[in-house]
Structures are given as C-alpha cells and as structure tokens.
Design a protein that fits this description.
The protein is built from 20 helices and 69 strands. The chain has 1458 residues and is of the alpha+beta class. Strands 1, 4, 5, 6, 7, 8, 9, 10 and 11 form a nine-stranded antiparallel β-sheet that branches. The chain has a six-stranded mixed β-sheet with strand order 41-40-48-49-42-45. A five-stranded antiparallel β-sheet has the order 2-15-12-19-18, with no helix packed on it.
Amino acid sequence: MATNAPPESVQARQQQIQEDAHAQVLGIVDEAASRGAAVHVFDPDAPPEKKASDVAKSQDKLKPYTSSGSDVPACKEMPIDTGTKGVVPTITVEDADRPAEEKLEKQDKAAPVPASPSDIGAYPSGPAPEIPEWYKVGWRSVANVDVPRSEDEQTTDKAVLERFLPEQFYGDWYHNAGIIVFAVCASHFFTRFNFGWGWLFILLAVCCTYYTTSMARVRRCARDDIQRELVKTRLASEHESADWLNNFLDRFWLIYEPVLSKSLVATVDQILSISTPAFLDSLRLSTFTLGTKAPRIVKVRTFPNTDDDIVMMDWSISFMPNDISDMTPREAMKKVNPKIVLSVRVGRGLASAAMPILIEDITFAGLIRVKLKLVSNFPHIQIVDITFLEKPTLDYVLKPVGGDTFGFDIAHIPGLSEFIREMVHANLGPMMYDPNVFTLNLEQLLSGVPLDAAIGVVQITIEAARGLKGSKIGGGSPDPYVSVTINDRQELSRTNHWSNTYNPTWAETKFILVNTLREPLVLNVMDYNEHRKDTRLGSATFDLQKLQDDATIEGIEQPILKDGKERGLLRFNLSYYPVLKPEMIEGKEQIPDTNIGIVRLTVHQAKDLDSTKSLTGDLTPLVKVYLGEDPSAIHRTQIIKHTNNPVWESPTEFLCMDKRSSLITLKVVDDRDILKDPVIGYMSVRLEDLLVGMSEGRDWWPLSACKSGKIRISLQWKPLQMAGVLGGVDQYVPPIGVVRLWLQRATDVKNVEAALGGKSDPYVRVLVNNVIKGRTEVINNNLNPNWDQIIYIPVHSLRESMFMEVMDYQHLTKDRSLGSVELHVSELARESPTDTQYRYESTGKKEAEDPLKLDGGNGQTFQGRLHYVTEFIPCLNLKNVHFDADENEMQQVAHRVSDIGDSSGNEKRDVTVRPPMDGVQGKEREGAFGNGVAGKVEGDPDGDETKDKEISGVELGKEELLKHQSGIIIFHILSGQLHKKARLEVLLDDGYWPAFSTIKARSTRAQWQYVGEAFIKELDFGRIWLRLNENAEGDKDDIIAEWKGNAKPFVDATLDRRCTYTLTNDEDKTSTVVIETRYVPVPVKLEPRESINNQGVLRVELVGAKDLRSADRTGKSDPYAVFTLNGQKECKSQTKKKTLHPEWNEIFNINVPSRVAADFTVEVFDWNQLEQDKSLGVGRIRLDDLEPLESAERFVTLSSEKHGEKGAVHLRMVFQPEIIARARKSTSTFSVAGRAMTHIGSLPIEAGRGVLQGVGSIFKRDHEKENSLPSHPEILAATQSLGSGGAASRSVESLHTTGGAPSDPGVLKVVVLSAKGLHTNEAKPYALVRVGEKEHKTKHGHSKTSTPEWNETFVFPASSSTQKLYVWVYDHKTLGKDKVLGEGEVEIWRHLQPGQSSVADLTADLREGGQVRLHLEFDVDANAHAHDPSVTSLERPTPVSPSRFSLRGRRPGATDDS
C-alpha cells in the first residue's frame, strides 16, 4: 500500500526536522562544554542497552527492578504450575548455542598446565590460602570474646581474691596497697638480716618510682576521661562543621560525577522507555550532568548515647551550584551548572520528531537524620534509615519548549511553581519526612539477592463472613467479596463475589508469594458494584509474624472494622511454607533436591531478533511467559520500542508442583497498537533442562519459528518446606538388602581435645546419601577405641556407597570429624542371575584396615586406621513394597475436585492407639494389640483396594511375613497433632541412637510424609520407641513426649493400615502421630552376642563362703564380698565378723549388657578398722554358659597371686533376658549396664525362652538340701515396674492389688549406699538427700574417686504429700563453692507399697551421668523424731526377697513344661 512506502520528499522533510532539533540540542551542549565541563552526550535514537554497555555488568544484581517503579510489593499472588503431560518442548539443553564453550576449550588448550602441588619447588596453581585459623586477627580474636568457656575454665581463671571478695570491694585498690605492704615487709627483712642503709635507699627509690609512675597514669587517665565526657556532651548539644569532608568532596566530585552520571542515565533511561505514554513515541535522556560544584555538608550533629551497634547523626546538606561566593574568579568562569536534556519524540514511525526539554540550575538544601545499624560481616552496615527532619528546599529551571535559547521557565507562571513544590512534598512526605523513615537494607542490596525475592508462600483459605453491615445506595443487600492485600497496598488477589447476602461463604484458597513477614495481612471485604467503583465494607487485619511461631493456623476469626467500628466477622485459615535453605555438604552449599518449589524466572534480553517480520525493520518486542498448556500468560515483560536487541531484566516467580513434568514457554511478540501482535519467535523447554543448563553456565537459548534470534534467561529453584518434599513416598526406593558392618576398632585417631588436656570421644557413624543410617557407641577419652560392635545398614542400589566417619562426640556442640572411610556396595554384592526370591547375592566377607581420611586440605591427609569386617545380606524380594502417596496441602488445593461425597464406598482406614489401661494384662479383646494397647479400628480394613504396580516378586501374607525374625521395618510418618513443634525420632531396642528422625515440624499440626528405615534383629522381642525431640538434630536432646512398645504388635498393627499413636510426658501433655509401616525380611544369622538373650538382669544370691584365708591375728577374718562387672563395682555385701565360713544370704540385681563379653568377678576382703582392707582372693564367674531363666548354683574358687587358691564362694544365679537401655551422658561417659527396660508403660517386655518355671521358689533356702531345686514351681503373672533406672524389690502379692501413698504418716529410712559412673575421677563426692522439706548430707571422702561408698542412714517423715525423693551428688571443695556432679529423683510410692512391701533397693539415674544406690524402708508405726539422722550404718538391712521376673512372649518352638 501507499502508506507503507512514503514518497522521497516526505522522507527528506522528516529528516530535516530531526536534524534541526538535534542541532539545537548540540548547541546547548557545546556551550557548556566550552567552559570545561565533562558533559555526556547520548544519541537519542540509541537503544537503552547501548547506553548501559559502559556500566558494570554486575550492577543489575545490586539494584532491584520491578515494573511498578520504585514501589516494590511485599508479595503477590502466584501462578501454580501443576505439571504438563501433553506438550512437547521445542528445544532441549543440547539445542543451545555453544560458541562461548568453544572459546573456553581453545583457551584451555593454549593455557599451560599448572604444576602439581606435589611437585617440589613449583609455583602454586591457585590463589593464596586464607589466613590460618591459628592466627589471631582483630580484637575479638585476641580477647577470646567469641570462644565459649567451660565451667571448669571459668573456675580455674578466677583469682583467690575474686572468690572471696564481694564485687564492690574488688578493684585496683589492692594493687596500690600492695606497694605499702611490700615496703613494710622489705624494710623489715632488710633490718632483720642486718642489711645496710644502701638497701633502704634502693627500696625507697623503687617505691618513689612506682608512686610517680602510678600518679602520672592516674592523672593521664582522668584527664582523658574528663575530655571524653565533655566531648560527648558537646556532640549531643552542638553542631560541628565538616570542612575537611567538603574539601575532600570538592576534589573527588570532579572524578566521580562522570561515573555517577553514567549509572543514572543507564537506570533512568530504562525506566523512561518502559513508562512512555501511549501518545509519545519515546522518552530518552540525551544530556545529563550534575555540574562541577560538589554538594556540601553544612553542619553535623552526632548522638553518642545510643546502642553500641547504632550510629545516629543529623546532617545539614546543601547543593547550590549557582553560589559562587566561595569560588575564585577562574573557578567561577569554568563552573558548569547541572543540566538535564530530555528528548521527547512525538509521532509514529517515520512521522516523528524529537523535542528537547531542558532542566537546569537545580538547587537543594535540607536537614537529614541518618541512622546506621552496624553488623560484624560485610558490608558492616546492615540498615540505613533516612528521614528529613523538615521540608527540604528545592528549586530548578524547567524549559519545556525552546531549549536554552528560546526556552521559557514555567516557574514564572503564577502559582505553578508552588503547586509543583507541594506535589513533591506530598509524594515524599509519607515516604521520608519525619516521623516516616526511608530504609535501605545494604546487606541485602550488596548480597546479590533481589529485594522482591520470595521467602515463602502463604496459603490463605477464606471461609466465610458473618453479620456484615452495609447496604447499597438506594437499598438492597451487598454483593461481598474479599480483596487480599499486604499492608493495604495494591490488591494481590480477590475471591468471587456473592450476590445479595450478609453472610457469604466463599471457601476459596489463594496462594500469596511473600518476601517478608513483617507486614500485616489486610483482607478488605468489598461490595461489588457493576457500574461504579466498589465500596469497602471493612477490613480484617492479621499479623503474619505469628506464622513464624506456628506455620499453620486454622479457625481464625477476625472482626471486620471500618472507622473503628465492628462491621462483621471474617473466618479464614493460614498456612506458611518457607523456602528451604541450602545445606552445607562437604564444605559446599547444596540446595535440597525436591520436586516442589518456587521458580524465579528472569528474562534478561534478546539479540538478533528476526527483523523481517516488521516493515520498518525495527521491532517493539515484549515477552510473554506461559506454563504448560495454559493459554493465558503468567507474565508479560515491559515493551521496548524500536530495537532488535531489547533488554528487559524482567523477573517473575511461580509455584511449581511437579518439577519433572513442568514445561515453560516464552513467546517474543512484536507490539502493534491496532493490529494483531505477531509472534517473532518462541521457545518451549522443560524446567529440568533449564536447571541443567543453568548449572552448566548456559543462559542463551535459540528461538524457534524464526530466521534468527536468541533469548537470555536465568532460573533459580527455591525448594519449599512441605510435607514429603524430603524423604517422601515418591522418592523412596525399596531396599535390596543390608550390609553387616562389624566395626572392630580404630587406632591412632586424631586428638581434637589436646588443647584442653583430654582425648577424643570417638564413635563411628555410617552415612548413605548424606543420611545417617547407623552409629556405634561412644568410647570416652580414647584415641584407640575398641567398639567391637555389629550394625546393619539397609542399602537400595549397587551404586550406593557407605561413608563411615569417625566422630568426636560433643554433648553441647556439634560433633567433630576425626576421619572417614568410603565403602562401595558394588564391592560387596552383585545381581543374582537365577534366584527369584533374592535378586542380589553377596560376594563374600571383606576384612579391611583402611586409613582415615581427614577433611580439608587437598583430600590426601590421613591419620589413624579403621578396622572392620563387612558382608552383604540380601533381603527377600517382596512384591509391592511401597506406600500410597498422598497429595500434599498445595496439591490438594490445586487439584481440588467437586466429588467430595464419593459414592464409591471407599473410606479412609484409621486406627487409634490409646495409652495402656491399668489392669489390662493377658486379656484378649476385640481391637486389642499384642502389647496390651487398646485399639479402635475405624472403617473397613478391606475397603481400599491396592493399586500397586505389577512387578515381579514374592507375595507373603501378614502371618507368614511376621514369622521372619530379622528384617527392615519401613516407617511412613504421615502427620501428627503435637503440643509443641518438634521432630519425631524412631529408636529400636536399647535406644542408644535414633534409627532415623524426621525434620522439625513447622506447626503443631505436623505434616511430615517422611519415609525412614530401621533394621530389627528379633521381631518377637524387639522394642520400638517414638520420641518427640524439640531441638534440632545434632543439638542436645530435649525430649518432650515418648511412646514405647513391642516391635511385633506395632508392625502387626501398622502393616496394612494407618495407626494413631499417643505420646505422653511427665506433665500429662499428649501428642499424636499417624504411622504406617512395611516389613521386608532379611535372613540374618545372629551371633550369640547379638541376641536379646545376651543381655538382661542377673539375679545373684550370695549364699556364703567357706574355708576363707585367715587375715587377723586371731586366726579369723571379717569378710565381705564385692562384685565387679567390666571393671565397675556393682554391689557390696555386709561384713561378717570373726569367721572363715560366712553366711550372707543376700540378693543383688545386676544389669548385664553382654553375657558373652562380661568380665564378672567376686572379690572377698577382710575388713579392718584402722588399716586398709585386705583381699582374701578373687574369683571369676562365667556368664556365657548360663541358661536363661534357669537357676544355676556355683562354688567359685578364690585365688590370689601371693597365697594361691584358698576358699570358695557359694552363689545361686538366674539370668533374665531383657533389653538394657543405654543413654549418652553429658560427658560421653556411660554407665556400663544402663537401665533395664522391662516394661512398656505398665506392661512387661516379652523376653526369654520357654515358660518361666520355678522362679518364685528359686531363692527359697532349703537348709536340709542346699543343692536341690524346688519341686513345686510357682508361675508369676507380672513383674515389678522399675523406678528411676533401677530394680525395685516388691512382694508378689503387691502386684495384684492397687498400690499408692500411705493413708497415715510414718517414717522413711533412707540408706545412701554408694554411687558409680560419675563423670570425673577428680572429685571428693558427697550426697545430699531431700524428702519434703527435710535434707540430710553424707560425709565426703578424703580421696578422689568416681565410685564413692557412704553407707549412711537417714530418716525422714513421710506421708502421701511426699511423693518424691531428691538426691544430689556434689564435689566437695575446700576453697570455693561445691560443684554439682549429678542430680536425680525417685518416686517413693512407686517402689514402696504401705502394708505390703515396705523395703526397696533401687538405683537412681543422675541426669549428668552416673547412678546412686539407695535402700528404702517405710514404717507407719515408728516415730520420726525418735531416730538420730546422723547414725551411720555399715551393715545393710536384708531386703525382702524380690520377685521381678515374667515372661509374656515365647520364642518360636518353645514348649510349656509346666
């Protein structure tokens, strides 16, 4: 058409008009340049990217950009990408151009190969290392301010005077008094030993010199202090000049102003290009200068009385470039005033012309208050608050037409200048006029993180509103809807409107992207009007910071307020999903690999766009972003006019629900005003390919459906903390077997405690895919630890590797690495070609002695060696070992369906497990599980059909599956209702280390959906602990609730349904968790020491001894016996006077962690009153040949090195298998035996083999026939519950009646026997016992020991009001305060039953480590005041014969002989 090709005469006229306008602008510039000013001239037709090319490329990272100008929204509603299945991407990663990579390859080939670090004398190939850690740099490092100090160090560093003098008397006075004491003592010394007068003169000279120096220092310090205080007063009340700074600015401004002008033009020109009105073709800056005269700081006032990290100043700033009073004539002649020329192009296409708008003679003056918040890290200034204390003075000359020659200043128009000034104040006032503050977060600006970067997603479910007040104009009910805003700024989202109602119900869910929780959420209830502006009915406000304490808050009811009056009630729910932070793995930050997260997509620029699709050759491009098959764009960039190489720098964020199937499409469109916008080119690529390309440094991608063109984009993946994103069902892979690790010992491990004079506390942890799968015990204070422990690690692929890392245990801080060894599963296993039951087979045992590789350095530093034996054991190839994946919270909302009332008849299967009931023992009832825990089954267990994949494998029923004793229990931790936010730990058997742990719940309504594994050795006799730990993993444990149960009933209950378990604590607070499990058998042949039969409680009856050696002059001895297990004294008998054939008839209970490895001895001593007791002989007792639950009678021969074999000890023993609970103590020192865990709540554990026979009469003494066993056995129904970690002696009858506190008061006799396992050997311990308001203290020993013996008796008044006995163990200090070594408590009436059992022997666990042995007796008829509490008893009362054995479960194949 003719309009598309104008005549040449028209083109010539248009060209002439443009040249004339440009010449006029150049005339203005030449005049300013002739005076010596550095004026920057830009081509008005140049695109913005050309003007910004001189600016640093990294500058775009420092400044945030938003299409809405300077108003950065705190959040916005985000689009959701639920995944795509039908769209095929047009390009993949391989389609991207790679010229940059080719250049890099050429450079790599040409570059010389750096010398190996191992080459002697070679130059280093990398940068110099950082400052070594042992350097002390800065005052904080020299003063050790940030180094935590232990209590022992603090006590050691205290001076003697500081211990005894109060603080008000402690100072430098005694230094001054010291010279007087020194002079008196020295003069007395000189006189006493007849020194001459010369020595006295020397002494006088020393004292005079000290006095002169001291007084000079005092005067100097006093003068400095007085001057400093006067300066502080003057700083706060007076202003000071800054002439030195102004002198600096005068010189620096001439250098810095050109750079500042470049940066401003590059930034402002982009914004002008975006904000160009529709009736203009373009807005460009063609000239910009701030002149040659620098701004001046007129006066400064500083406020010294602020916090140490706050600096606050008032600055009076003036920018008067026209003032020449302080300039020389030569400087005034060369002065250049500020000048800005804005080129405005009017018209369209070729029919357009540029008009210059001139702004010059800018002046400014104001008083600013600056407040700086200081931090220790770079840039050391975190926040800058700026506010104008008064309205600033602003003046300028604006000539919109005519330029500098014929221009007319619009300020001469009456009233216009004042109007513009008031408009400026009206816009700046709410932003930065006092009391409003403009805040700059320098730390965030310089960190490279955009200001609008999301920190998480807030899910808002708007339920309903009730009782709205308001009506339409002219009558009628409102049509309400809810508008979602942050701090009542722009609308982020809105609900649908409901017509003609005062009680609307929306039930709509919105997802809001937030970058801060410091601003309130404002929900505006609006009245919808079709033909006029909507009317606000009121607003409901909620503080988003509450979501930091509890991430899910439901049932919120907020009043709707308007003008301070309540206008209704709004109901809504909130959930917050924060962004997961990167994890530090091997010294590098790694983002957790999740399938759900926030995608931040930034469209940077394009180049070489296909100009053939435009008639003029110039494009006006923009980019539209689409997700999957959605036809509506989720983001549009700004429009850049007249360029084929546009720069957008436009970011957007959206929520991705499925990273694997997400598809992103970008279309580059040429903007046409009236005609349809054509697509210049497009790209469609999968999100995973984009992320791979970003990791490889690719950011340019080719466009499809065009002759040329590339687009540069960047992508950032931010995973969300949501249920199932880490360790979820969709990420779980069934195991192929277990690796049996026999960790024998380590030698010469690294000592990280050498600086404190100690040794490392090593243990081994095994990691698979950076997840801890198993750990050994901690060996305290040993550089050559001998663990001799077998652990089982589930593995899932031959490609996996196990990372065995030796760690130093720290109770209060993070454990430290001592070295590591890597073991590959492929070295131990291979695929089985024929066996269908076991897909993999072992390649044999591997015995190794590998060096421990230390962290850091070049990775070739080794210290110590790890000795271990390993073997692979395949698991049974079961079919359908998986869980049904539930949708998380966001997926449920995103995929919400309308068929809530499903008519299929399928119901959710739930099982609720309640706490055990008293008296429910040995009874079977409907819904009860094997551990006596009542259960309630809701729904039909066969209602849901399994929708598993048809894969090859073995199918086993539940009964057949549970016959296998060893296997892997797979836990699916779904959700929970907690009384505190915590993480759930799952422990097996002895509970030394957790088998696995979930992440800490974000809310008390926990949503975990976490899958973890644990290997159980004996299903029939194993135990399962569920623990809620409030602290993070690696920190000190803080257990707030727990549940304990037998393994087999637990697996039976959760194998085909979901169960709810209730966890409780001492404060009667309950929490519930929902769990389901799977069980995969593993054919493991356990060694005898691995079986539960190997650990338990050994009941020893010390009958007597005969033919002992005589140690006294009378030919007799005073014998007593001491039993020792693995080097620890366990118990001590009474002393029998003047006999060689003593009869003790005492009973002891000893916890044995391993019969096979037990070193059990009995040693008989001769008691002496004045001298040390003499040993009469030692006898070793074998425990590995004891048959469980069968009485064994032995005569143990005593022997000594000096006298040989002489005498024998008569013993009766019964071993009851039980799981011995072990705990990690605060000092890495653990008691050898620990606590016997015999019960689940109030129920006994299933342990032992066969039916218990004759236990009740095993220890009945038959004086006629000592070696015969009773012929009539008694069957006991239950065992006694243990108290604070020890064995309690109670009669059998007390188990069948309800016990409790006594109805009448009486006397409680407490015998404090001994203690063991204290965490230090350098103490003189004594015990303090308290019952009610009364306390008694034992005597302290004269020698230092960790196993003190007291044998002291105290009496206390006791009644139903005294429920607990408290015991403390202190270290006696001659000088200073005694130190607490441990504290514990005992529930008195749990061990004593008035009227039934009035005697109890027990062991109380101390929280800090160790145990205290006590003997309790209660007498109702005695008088408490008739006893002397200081009486010391060396003879223990004989306790009532206790009965503590029970057997609830039987091993397979056991027979009932009764």
